[in-house]
Amino acid sequence: MKWVKQVVTIWKVRCLRCGHEWVPRGADEHTDSRAPPELESPPRICPKCKSAYFDVPPKSDNPDEAPAPAGKKPRRAQKGRSS
Predict the structure, then answer these.
(1) Which residues contact 43 (CB under 8 A, 6 or more apart)?
(2) Mean pLDDT (10-residue bins), the chain, 83 residues
(3) How high is the pLDDT of residue 39?
(4) What angle do CA 52, 18, 50 make, to 5 degrees?
(5) What pLDDT is recorded for position 77?
(6) Which pLDDT value is given to residue 83?
(7) What is the Cα–Cα distance from 24 to 8, expressed in whole angstroms?
(8) Torsion angle (degrees, nearest 10) of CA 36, 41, 45, 46
(9) How many Cβ atoms are within 10 Å of 34's Cβ, its own excluded?
(10) Calpha distance 68→76 (Å, rounded)
């Protein structure tokens, strides 16, 4: 028996929302290890968190830093009233 060393490159997709990594269908048939595979149908959602925006980084990790929704003004503290 003769042992042979073989290097295998597996291309994965990572969800930028939850961090889940997976190998998309059809990626195992790809032979060129220098470039990511061109898939017939690219992934539409993350299989873990079901986000369709898995390839778009979140705007902010801290909800306090997120801008207020358009059309709504932030509430102001009223002067003279104390709780």
Answers:
(1) 13, 22, 24, 54
(2) 86 92 79 72 91 89 57 66 59
(3) 76
(4) 35
(5) 67
(6) 55
(7) 16
(8) -40
(9) 5
(10) 13
Using the 8-state DSSP alphabet, how is residue 21 labeled? E
Residue 11 phi, psi dihedral angles, 5° rounding: -85, 130
- pTM above 0.90? no
Report how far residue 45's alpha carbon sits from residue 47's, in angstroms, rounded to the nearest whole number: 6
Q: Is 80 helix (H, G, I), strand (E, B) or coil?
A: coil
What would the two tokens of residue 58 be? 């979140």
Are 30 and 37 spatial neighbours (Cβ–Cβ below 8 Å)?
A: yes
Task: Name residue 3's amino acid.
Answer: W
Amino acid at 65: E
